[in-house]
Automatic annotation (TrEMBL), chain A:
Residues at which ATP binds: 14-21
Subunit structure: Heterotetramer of 2 NUBP1 and 2 NUBP2 chains. Interacts with KIFC1. Interacts with NUBP1.
Requisite cofactors: [4Fe-4S] cluster
GO biological process: iron-sulfur cluster assembly
Localization per record: Cytoplasm, Cytoskeleton, Cilium axoneme; Cytoplasm, Cytoskeleton, Microtubule organizing center, Centrosome, Centriole
GO CC, any one term: nucleus
Cofactor stoichiometry and binding remark: Binds 4 [4Fe-4S] clusters per heterotetramer. Contains two stable clusters in the N-termini of NUBP1 and two labile, bridging clusters between subunits of the NUBP1-NUBP2 heterotetramer.
Pfam families in UniProt: ParA (PF10609)
Coiled coil: none
Function per UniProt: Component of the cytosolic iron-sulfur (Fe/S) protein assembly (CIA) machinery. Required for maturation of extramitochondrial Fe-S proteins. The NUBP1-NUBP2 heterotetramer forms a Fe-S scaffold complex, mediating the de novo assembly of an Fe-S cluster and its transfer to target apoproteins. Negatively regulates cilium formation and structure.
GO molecular function, one term: 4 iron, 4 sulfur cluster binding
Similarity comment: family membership: Belongs to the Mrp/NBP35 ATP-binding proteins family. NUBP2/CFD1 subfamily.
Protein name: Cytosolic Fe-S cluster assembly factor NUBP2 homolog
Automatic annotation (TrEMBL), chain B:
Coiled coil: none
Binding site for [4Fe-4S] cluster 2: 242, 245
Domain of life: Eukaryota
Record-level Gene Ontology MF annotations: 4 iron, 4 sulfur cluster binding; ATP binding; ATP-dependent FeS chaperone activity; metal ion binding
Binding-site list for ATP: 68-75
PANTHER family, per the entry: CYTOSOLIC FE-S CLUSTER ASSEMBLY FACTOR NUBP1, NUCLEOTIDE-BINDING PROTEIN NBP35 YEAST -RELATED
Ranges annotated as spanning the membrane: none
CDD domains: Mrp_NBP35
Biological function: Component of the cytosolic iron-sulfur (Fe/S) protein assembly (CIA) machinery. Required for maturation of extramitochondrial Fe-S proteins. The NUBP1-NUBP2 heterotetramer forms a Fe-S scaffold complex, mediating the de novo assembly of an Fe-S cluster and its transfer to target apoproteins. Implicated in the regulation of centrosome duplication. Negatively regulates cilium formation and structure.
Region (Disordered): 1-22
Protein name: Cytosolic Fe-S cluster assembly factor NUBP1 homolog
Assembly behavior: Heterotetramer of 2 NUBP1 and 2 NUBP2 chains.
Length: 257, 316
């Protein structure tokens, strides 16, 4: 099913809540802005965030002869999205599954979705280094995966988990495209003084120690979290976040030639 | 017992239940991803359940700290609560069990990152942070902070069973169990093993924005499906007070009413909000005791109210 997909990018982080889904959607939207056809696959089964972040809650996935038809965000079908969120009847429902069941769902997502022709497939993952990640990695062995973008926040508690994710990538042979430090500093709207709420520079230091590329630092900007399906590079072109997303996407395009 | 675990809601319509003789063999099982596991798995209740019951017999309050969402501060809130509970009364014994296998944070947050766990005749001895505060985590068993635990579910379950049945806690007033994000293996295992051990209930942690609340709603559904009493919801990172101009800002805007709104909507108790104080974040990164270091932080005040409400809900 992935024959028509030219490039596959994973978005990983050992830590939860660092902004994997936000970064995934913004990378996808930025790629669309640059004229690419993009797919976004959400393999976070217990906490799917992509349908909400793209304002696609309540949309349905359809079956066709070729497999599951993903949900498209626009008429031109430039952004295709697949998530377990589309398969739940109610947004409050929990998916209480053990590993083996999650594994087969992830496998289905990777083999049964009819993506068609795509320039990029972005895969958003849950936190950790367990079932979902092992399954994705095993199933992508036969397909070319261009690499992983790792997301972290600057504080040590988060860096510690992300180091484990880097070890995971190294052990399983997934190339690392680079590391993004998210939530690095907050500019107070009333006095414009910058506070490093979750400290600062941890991601950069980690990138240096682990010998991976630092793709950029994204400051805390509550506006970005509220874009809900609109590209940051379009809506807030002058914000530091937009600059970083552009940098990341340029780097991704460069790596994934 | 955990009837819901025996037959998940997502199972095929006529699922015979995982404990049934027909598990994996009935016609309804055809095509179910769990079929093979059901067909080959053991049918009698896990002997671990009785072991856990016995081991935790002297633990008065057993509390799970849950959140569907990652990075909302489960570990930080667990550490804050345990430190504050321990500080309230020196005769009160408090312990923290970290069942986040892939991303253990308790050793760092409680400032015992370099410690090791010892074996004794009566089981694993936890690491003591203070005279009346002990902790156990897989972090103590890793040789290097870079080591990753790349395990599928069953192996994680084995570890959790060991943690629950083989740690020599002694007499405890509070055992707080810090969990990973989600509603999967770790949570189901903990709930199954604790099913006979008289679990007091769960504290849910969230941040105010909808993308976090969305996952926490799922966790509430999980608690209801598995019959866990919800002791209350703690909203973390609710307000940020600029250290320069003392103005409040919302970092994670509560556009949908925040945790309080969600609690009213779903009829669960709300314990309180913790503001975002960068000094507390730093304290946690360095593993320092914030109660001694930052007695004036607004977090301490908020925490005090949360604990009072929590203790009340534990007693009910």
């Amino acid at each position: 099913m992935l024959e028509g997909v030219k490039h596959i990018i994973l978005v990983l982080s050992g830590k939860g809540g660092v902004g994997k889904s936000t970064v995934s959607t913004q990378i996808a939207l930025t790629l669309v802005e640059k004229g690419c056809k993009v797919g976004l696959l959400d393999v976070d089964l217990c906490g799917p965030s992509i349908p909400y972040l793209l304002q696609l809650e309540g949309k349905d996935v359809h079956q066709s002869d070729e497999g599951w038809v993903p949900v498209y965000t626009d008429e031109k079908q430039n952004l295709a999205v697949m998530s377990i969120g589309f398969l739940l009847n109610n947004r409050n429902n929990a998916v209480v599954w053990r590993g083996p069941k999650k594994t087969s769902m992830v496998k289905q997502f990777l083999t049964d979705v009819s993506w068609g022709e795509l320039d990029y497939l972005i895969i958003d993952t849950p936190p950790g280094t367990s079932d979902e990640h092992i399954t994705v990695m095993e199933n992508l062995k036969n397909v070319k995966c261009d690499g992983a973008v790792i997301v972290t926040t600057p504080q040590l508690v988060s860096i510690e988990d992300v180091r484990k994710e880097i070890t995971f990538c190294k052990k399983t042979g997934i190339p690392i495209i680079g590391l993004i430090e998210n939530m690095s500093g907050f500019v107070c709207p009333s006095c414009t003084n910058c506070t490093n709420i979750f400290s600062k520079g941890g991601g950069e230091t980690l990138a240096t120690i682990s010998n991976i590329k630092h793709l950029g630092s994204i400051p805390i900007d509550p506006r970005v979290g509220q874009l809900l399906g609109r590209a940051c590079v379009n809506e807030l072109p002058d914000s530091p976040s937009a600059k970083v997303f552009n940098q990341i996407v340029d780097k991704v395009i460069q790596v994934a030639v | 017992m955990a009837s819901i675990v025996a037959k998940p809601e997502s199972a095929p319509e006529h699922c015979p239940g995982t404990q049934s003789d027909q598990a994996g063999k009935a016609s309804a099982c055809a095509g179910c991803p769990n079929q093979q596991i059901c067909a080959t798995g053991p049918k009698e209740p896990d002997p671990g359940i009785a072991l856990v019951k016995e081991r935790l017999g002297e633990v008065q309050n057993k509390i799970l700290v849950l959140s569907g969402k990652g990075g909302v501060g489960k570990s930080t809130v667990t550490a804050l609560l345990s430190r504050a509970l321990a500080a309230r009364d020196p005769n009160q014994n408090v312990a923290v069990l970290d069942i986040d296998i892939c991303g253990p944070s308790q050793p760092r947050v409680l400032g015992v990152a370099d410690e090791q766990v010892h074996q004794s005749g009566s089981g694993w001895s936890p690491v003591y942070v203070d005279d009346n505060l002990s902790v156990m985590s897989i972090g103590f068993l890793l040789a290097s902070p870079d080591d990753a635990i790349i395990w599928r579910g069953p192996k994680k379950n084995g570890m959790i069973k060991q943690f629950l049945s083989e740690v020599d806690w002694g007499q405890l007033d509070y055992l707080l169990m810090d969990t990973p994000p989600g509603t999967s293996d770790e949570h189901l295992s903990a709930v199954t093993y604790l099913s006979q051990a008289n679990l007091t209930g769960a504290i849910l942690v969230t941040t105010p924005q909808e993308v976090a609340l969305l996952d926490v709603r799922k966790e509430i559904d999980f608690c209801r499906k598995t019959n866990i009493k919800i002791l209350g919801v703690v909203e973390n990172m609710s307000k940020f007070i600029c250290p320069c101009c003392a103005k409040e800002s919302e970092i994670f805007p509560a556009n949908t009413g925040g945790a309080r709104g969600m609690c009213e909507e779903l009829d669960v108790p709300f314990l309180g909000s913790l503001p975002l104080d960068p000094k507390v974040t730093r304290c946690c990164d360095e593993g320092k005791n914030f109660i001694e270091d930052l007695p004036d932080s607004p977090v301490i005040k908020a925490l005090d109210q949360i604990i009072t409400r929590l203790q009340m809900n534990c007693r009910d």
